Amino acid sequence: MKRLVLAALLAGSTSLAQAQQTDLTIALQLEPPHLDPTSAAAGAIDSVLYANVFEGLTKFAESGAVVPGLAREWEISEDGLTYTFHLVEGATFHDGTAFDAGDVVFSLDRARAEDSTNAQKQLFAGIASVEAVDPATVKVTLSQPDGNLLFNLAWGDAVIVAPESIDDIKARPVGTGPFRFEDWRQGDSITLVRNDAYWGDAPALTHATFKFISDPTAAFAAMMAQDIDAFAGFPAPENLPQFEADPRFKVLRGSTEGETILAMNNALPPFDDVRVREAVAHAIDRQAVIDGAMFGLGTPIGTHFAPHNPDYEDLTALSDFDPETSKALLAEAGLEDGFSTTLKLPPPSYARRGGEIIAAQLREVGIDAEITNLEWAQWLEQVFKGKDFGLTIVSHTEPFDIGIYARPDYYFQYGKPEFVALMDKLTATSEPEARTALLHQAQEMIAKDYVNGYLFQLAFPTIADARLEGLWTNAPTQATDLTAVHWTE
Question: How far apart are CA 424 and CA 427, in angstroms?
């Protein structure tokens, strides 16, 4: 009888231990190149730090809605030029320094400065001044009305940083969020721990380790062995049915803001000829790429805009799969014998797998695309910064980012003046129907200019331990928000 009682007590203590689990090991495919979200284009930084370590005045909820962050409320002047933000009080940075209006002024002035390295500096271009009214109040004055300001301030590029810790931010990030940075084992993992001095609701997790597993086969093995508790953005969609059939796991099939494109260097011959870009577009069988690289997960797109956005226009017919038209366009451009170019691919499986399929499709029309596989830091240096490429494949996961086409020095180097003017008009327009009309014009312009080959909207499958709750299903921005994650038993 004593043995039975002891066994029952041990079983009960095991259940209690499971109920009290407060640590998490979650895997991602891409490792950040560094840890400053305000000075790099790599979404992998936000995947670890957004809403966990760093916070902005506003932030994105899982629904995509913009909600209060370090600004608890705000008022907008009647002319739309002045935003007065009332800040949360009692917040501190992880190094113990107080958060106040001076930090907001520092962060926004740094982001919009002439020498700013912020990858989304354009988000702050309309700000004329930032003023600390008092320690808990900030006044932002615009040069013209901008209905996107609250949305722009929710980006990871707009998080609030402190002057005291800015010098070492790339290696030791210091924010105001519910988790603080503890350790980075480069090539392996980043560990966060709960910020017990957090100004808001305390998260349930005390420790969170982000593991970086780039290989899809290794991702499957680690998840099946339960060496990890979850994998956000699981890179092997062919394995989803196996996980769905296993009661140990749950599968979350979500969507993202990620327009996956075959980007073309518009300033590099022969891609500076719209006929060549159109030929590339017609050489691609989108559905074959989706089926072969993503095992059917993904929605075809014909422009740089998310299909779930109410202002989306389906323009896929403009670049339908038509190899004969592709060959005819190449001949018209004086390239009847085809040409050779580079296809530089970052690590995600959609790029590596999709690249092999697209290279084969391009060969069928006479375009020889030499594949080079790059690590993420190499891709950022060579392709994004150096513009040393002919073709590349990448998913742009930033929300509502069609405005990047107005930047002539952006890596695919478009920046058509008419498009720039269109984006300026959109910024100054607040009436919904007028904005919709302008957004349709914008989508049509880049689709008809065949700026890039538009492939598909990236899906976002997450595999998790069946007992885990609170993970985002959808990804309105590239983030792994752990603030509501908890174990159920």
Answer: 5
Amino acid identity at 99: F
Name the residue with tokens 């560094």: 34
Comparing C-alpha atoms, which of 93, 186, 71 is closest to residue 139?
A: 71
Angle between helices 274-283 and 323-332 (to 10 degrees): 160
- Taking residue 105's Cβ as centre, other Cβ atoms within 10 Å add up to 18
Signed CA dihedral, 314, 317, 323, 329: sign only? negative
- Tokens 């919009």 identify what position? 112
Cα separation, 154 vs 481, whole angstroms: 14
Hey, how many other C-beta atoms are within 10 angstroms of the C-beta on 449?
17
The answer to whether 216 and 236 have CB atoms below 8 angstroms apart is yes
pLDDT beyond 80 at 89: yes
Check whether 15 has a pLDDT greater than 50: no
Q: Which residues contact 6 (CB under 8 A, 6 or more apart)?
A: none
Whole-number Å distance between alpha carbons of 109 and 119: 15
DSSP 454-465: EEEEEEEEEEEE
Helices 349-363 and 274-283 cross at an angle (nearest 10°) of 100
CB 367 within 8 A of CB 339: yes
Half-sphere exposure of 343 (CA within 13 A, CB side): 25
For range 356-362, the mean pLDDT = 98
Sign for the pseudo-dihedral over CA of 147, 397, 291, 303: positive
3-state SS assignment for residue 23: strand
Distance from C-alpha of 204 to C-alpha of 486, rounded to nearest angstrom: 6
Whole-prediction pTM value?
Answer: 0.81
- Token readout for 438 is 């302008």
